[in-house]
Design goal:
Elements lengths: L6 E9 L4 E13 L3 E3 L1 H11 L2 H18 L2 H4 L3 E5 L2 H4 L4 H11 L7 E6 L6 H13 L3 E7 L6 H6 L4 E4 L1 H10 L3 H11 L3 E4 L5 H10 L3 E2 L10 H12 L2
Parallel strand pairs: 2-4, 4-5, 5-6, 6-7, 7-8, 8-9
Antiparallel strand pairs: 1-2, 1-9, 2-3
Helix pairs in contact: 2-5, 5-6
Length: 243
């Protein structure tokens, strides 16, 4: 973080309605010359523990803004880029102001940004809600990330200005591996609340087809593409969306 050496990769998100890649998730990646690639599930918790997560989050947000500024998303068919916010970031009262300042610095409209929060972030609904309200008023949209891994109050979730619910891969995989039927119920529940659904962890054509039939609006996973560097992401999107 101190050396600003964290890279941002992008994982495509497929729209079943358009049958094209319409967005992507920005993901932090860390490479060390001696250790090689360090998984996010190792360095993100460390950053949250030692307080560097705020600076890390700023760097990822700014590098994503730079990517949006330097590339014509409309010509690629991309509507917006999703950026993760950690629970620690969501507890900062000035979070909205910091993100808006960064977007202005790069000349980015906030409607190009979809911010992902986790269930843990919704537990302090006052601070999180105030930040979300200000960001939405300035054009940003929000997704609930990794639904099914936290212990949040469902009422709190439904009271927040969310547009998309991302169902965690653990729920998706349990349906296809164990035939547990919670997945269709979760999809129906959120669709009844006028929320769009994104299924994570899609790995096969069968999964992709069944999830689309269940009513998932978007899909994300290795079946489409792993997270890749910016140049590779652009090549992939051009190839898929040209078809």
């Amino acid at each position: 973080v101190k050396n600003d050496s964290v890279e941002v990769y992008f994982q495509p998100i497929y729209s079943n309605g358009c049958r094209k890649i319409r967005s992507a998730e920005a993901l932090a990646r860390l490479y060390d010359p001696e250790l090689g690639f360090i998984p996010p599930d190792e360095f993100i918790p460390k950053a949250e523990q030692n307080g560097s997560i705020m600076q890390l989050g700023r760097q990822v947000f700014e590098k994503t803004c730079r990517f949006i500024r330097d590339n014509d998303l409309d010509s690629l068919g991309i509507d917006y880029i999703e950026i993760n916010l950690s629970p620690v970031q969501c507890l900062q009262e000035r979070l909205a102001d910091e993100l808006l300042d960064a977007a202005r610095k790069y000349g980015i409209s906030m409607d190009r940004v979809n911010l992902e929060i986790t269930e843990t972030s919704t537990m302090d609904s006052d601070v999180t809600g105030n930040n979300m309200k200000k960001l939405v008023e300035n054009g940003a949209s929000f997704s609930l990330d990794d639904y099914g891994t936290g212990f949040s109050n469902l009422i709190n979730i439904l009271n927040l200005p969310l547009g998309i619910v991302k169902i965690d891969k653990s729920i998706v995989w349990s349906y296809f591996n164990d035939s547990r039927d919670i997945l269709p119920h979760v999809i129906r529940m959120f669709r009844s609340q006028k929320l769009e659904i994104l299924a994570e962890g899609v790995e096969t054509e069968q999964m992709a087809n069944e999830l689309a039939a269940m009513g998932c609006d978007y899909e994300q996973g290795f079946y489409f593409s792993k997270p890749v560097p910016p140049a590779e992401f652009i090549r992939y999107v051009k190839k898929v969306n040209a078809g």
